[in-house]
Every structure is written in C-alpha cells, then in structure tokens.
Write a structure and sequence with these properties.
The structure holds two protein chains of two kinds.
Chain A (H helix, E strand, L loop, with lengths): L2 E3 L4 E5 L4 E3 L2 E3 L5 E8 L6 E7 L7 E2 L2 E6 L4 E6 L8 E9 L8 E3 L3 E6 L1
Parallel strand pairs in A: 2-12
Antiparallel strand pairs in A: 1-4, 3-9, 5-6, 5-10, 7-8, 8-9, 10-11, 10-12
Chain B lengths: L4 E3 L2 E4 L5 E6 L6 E8 L3 E9 L14 E5 L5 E5 L8 E8 L9 E2 L3 E5 L1
Parallel strand pairs in B: 2-10
Antiparallel strand pairs in B: 1-3, 3-7, 4-5, 4-8, 6-7, 8-9, 8-10
The chains are: A mainly beta, B mainly beta.
Chain lengths: 117, 115
C-alpha cells in the first residue's frame, strides 16, 4: 500500500512571501496522480493543484506550483506571494491510476499553514 | 452549479444508536467517495461507488459501517451501534469519473459526535 508523509505539522509565513510545503510518498507503481488539497476553517476541501506522474513538467496554477521529483518520490508545494486567504490546512494526496485502489485518494497527515499580515 | 451537499452538518448521538449520513453529489458525476477525518487517524478512505460497478468497500473499518447509493445519485452512509471512536467528520466527494486523476469535489462534511 502506498503511504504519503507530510513532515511539517505547522508552517507560518508573512503575507507576500513564499513558502514551501513538503510531501513524500512511497509507491511501487509507475502511473499515478498527486494532488494538493486545501482545507480552510470552513472545512470545505478544495483542489489546489494536480500532477500526473508521467509528465515531467511541474504543474503550475497561478501562485501555486509544485516541485515533482519522481525518483525521490517527492512532491512539494510552493506558494508565492502568500495571501491571508491561503491560511488553511494543506493535504498532499496520492491516487493510483489503475488496479484495485483505482480512484481513491490516500492523504498525508496535513500541514497547517498560517499567513501573518 | 450546485456543489456536493451533505446532511446533517452536525450530528450528536448516544453510544449504541444508529445514524445515517446523507450525500448529494454533483449532478452527472458517476463516482462518489466517502472519507473520514479524525484527529487520531487523519483523512482516510471509507468506500467508493463508480457507476453500476460493485462498490469498493475496502476502507470500511468494521461491519457496523455500510453505504448505499440509490439511482446512481444520492448516497447514505449508515453507522450501526455507534461507538465513541466513530466521532469524526465524514466527508463525501464526487467526480466526473472514477480515478484517471479526475478532481474530486468535496462536500462540507458531517461532524458526528458520539456521547
């Protein structure tokens, strides 16, 4: 079974600065997807960014980008120009692309990010 | 359009009672997922429905847990003889298709407290 590890329980950053959240995972599969989800205090999980393992190019969504290192099984999230609305818990998640675990997400423990004014 | 909705938003029940949690997925989404979020266990998969296929129940923690999806739409998660360790936030998600990296859209969750 695959595991996802987020080693930073809490992070903080000043508004307008850049912060990087770490995620590592363990799998023997070659085809899979990786995600970062955001959960603000409202509890609503929102997709931040998605990466397909077969793509070498790192995904980017506006201020959010990832550093995907497939060989190292690392998938970090960089948030540039941090905003107060970025304050939330961030989850890294893994999805197999086939097989018996097809479709379901395996989540890391989460990182609480606080953006200070 | 409307997102995933869940009801109730909060539920307090006594140990030993049965509870039903409801999920209304986004219209047209064929895949539906239940997850549980608790302080001790984090976010964990419970069950997955994909179209007319048999559901993947591999994440259900015990036989006290069951789920149905009627007409390929609404789903109900039932917990029988609730225990204190069942206290958690139960999240439902749906996606256009199962797997294939499709985004899962989450509902706001039901916070279950077993006293």
């Amino acid at each position: 079974a695959q595991t996802v590890t987020q080693s930073q329980p809490e992070m903080s950053v000043q508004e307008a600065e850049t912060v990087t959240l770490s995620c590592t995972y363990d799998t023997s599969e070659n085809n899979y997807y990786l995600f970062w989800y955001k959960q603000p205090p409202s509890r609503q999980m929102i997709l931040v960014i998605r990466q397909e393992a077969y793509k070498q190019q790192n995904a980017t969504e506006n201020r959010f980008s990832v550093n995907f290192q497939k060989a190292a099984k690392s998938f970090s999230l960089k948030i540039s120009d941090s905003q107060l609305g970025d304050t939330a818990m961030y989850f890294c998640a893994f999805m197999w692309s086939e097989g018996t675990s097809y479709g379901k997400l395996t989540f890391g423990q989460g990182t609480i990010l606080t953006v200070h004014p | 359009g409307a997102g995933v909705s869940q009801s109730p938003s909060n539920k307090v029940t006594e140990k030993g009672k049965d509870v039903e949690l409801r999920c209304d997925p986004i219209s047209g989404h064929t895949a539906l997922y239940w997850y549980r979020q608790s302080l001790g266990q984090g976010l964990e998969f419970l069950i997955y429905f994909q179209g007319n296929s048999a559901p993947d129940k591999s994440g259900l923690p015990s036989d006290r847990f069951s789920a149905e999806r009627t007409g390929g739409s609404v789903s109900t998660l039932t917990i029988q003889r609730t225990q204190q360790e069942d206290s958690a936030v139960y999240l439902c998600a749906s996606s256009f298709q199962g797997g294939r990296g499709h985004e899962q859209y989450f509902g706001p969750g039901t916070r279950l407290t077993v006293t």
